[in-house]
Amino acid sequence: MKKEEILAIEQEVCSWDDTVHYLNPPKIFRACEESYLYDEENKPYLDLQMWYSACNFGYKNERINNAIKDQMDKMGQLASQFLFEEKVILSKKLVDANQKRFGLKGRIHFNVGGSQAIEDSLKLVRNYKKKNLNFAFMGGYHGRTLGATAITSSYRYRERFGHFSDRALFIPFPYCFRCPYGKNLDSCDYYCVKEFEKLFESEYYSIYNPRTKDCEYAAFYVELIQGTGGYVKAPPEYFKKLKKILDQANILLVDDEIQMGFYRTGKLWSIEHYGVKPDIIVFWKISYKWNESFIRTMGKRRAYQSKYMAAGFYSFYFLFKSDRCKSRLRSYEHHRRKRLRKHGSTKRAKVFRGLEKIKEKV
């Protein structure tokens, strides 16, 4: 079909909510390979976002694609009540990696995307804490499903859909370059953390009862390094100080690693840079064709036990796919084989050196 025909039909039958309509008219692509997309004239376009950070190894990665094809020939889509080897092996590798880093046992729960993984984490938090309110950061982005939208700070995602009774209490993110309090890191003594801590001093601040030590809010959803909010990192001691407050108030720390996990910051998880242990890790976008994981690392709270994870209450029919589990295994091995931890750290240092040089000239 010609481009004009495709666009005319698309105008009639496709949803206007598709993000292709950020551009009008939408651009039509015919192929992709490595870091490039190709239009109907075979003109290459460099994909600077790489599928919103999902294609760590580029489009049409031969090793990963072959793993998918091989698995499809053996066993394709299965309903979620059927078990297969690749899912168990992958879960074991990830649980072991987390136990090595945090000293905490946990379990893996799969879903079909980032927002859906956030939704399942919200259900887990609500089931364990019996509360539906959470903290989140200003500038934070966690998805566009109803639950994820309630903890995403941008009002435009909620604007069309009425009142959100479970809307998060949004806390200023510690963006030192444009500090919301007008402070300077060299002299502020982490003023932003102290402002948050004040909320727990009196019952009249509306969220906490010092007598019973009970908080109305169940968890704090964080991006250690904000993605959609502007690729902003917190100062080095911020999350240690925040975690201390959360632990004292019995509030879960939920680490959203969807954009920053899997060596994008030089470590498996971005939270490793800050020296704190999360209660829940949510992740997705690990590599091309690997896009449906959500991990819990629970220590003393044990919210991953069967009491809180009863069969069928989080899952749906096509929760995980055998071909994707096989591709995830290949991706995980690819990460380790390519030594992405060292490679990512080297690249990051090079970029920061370049930014510092630009900063000196401004």
Question: Could you explain the architecture of this structure?
Answer:
The protein is α/β, with parallel strands linked by helices and 362 residues long. The protein folds into two domains: 3-48, no CATH class; 67-358, Aspartate Aminotransferase, domain 2 (3-Layer(aba) Sandwich), CATH 3.40.640.10. The protein is 35% helix and 14% strand. It is built from eleven helices and 14 strands. It has helices spanning 3-13, 50-53, 62-74, 85-102, 114-129, 146-150, 185-188, 191-198, 238-248, 322-337, 340-361; strands spanning 29-33, 36-39, 44-46, 106-110, 133-137, 169-171, 208-209, 214-215, 217-222, 225-226, 232-233, 252-256, 280-282, 293-297. The chain has a seven-stranded mixed beta sheet, with helices on both faces. A three-stranded antiparallel beta sheet has the order 1-2-3, with no helix packed on it. A two-stranded antiparallel sheet has the order 7-8. Strand 5, helix 6 (146-150) and strand 6 form a beta-alpha-beta unit. Helix 4 crosses helix 10 (322-337). The model is unreliable at 287-293 (pLDDT under 50).
